[in-house]
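Researcher: Next entry in the queue.
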Amino acid sequence: MGQVFDNWNGGITIGGSKISNLRFAEDTILIAASQEDLVALLNVLEQHSAAYGLGINYNKTKVMIVDREHDNHQSNKVNRPL
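Model: Structure for this entry, 82 residues:
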């Protein structure tokens, strides 16, 4: 995971700290400011994971969109790559 985020400048700023991911045991939460940034981050993660023989299980992958500007919240299951 360190290699994925070494050159990544995306994410969001909370309390002056840049946050792009949260990790819990076997789960990882990716945080991006836009769908384009999230797709780019997933592509980087997929490339680095493949080098170790790992892959993303898109059947278990979910996307949550939070748009405070329009008070819009969505949660979707991802069946294939974005």
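Model: Residues 2-77 form one domain.
Researcher: Noted, moving on.
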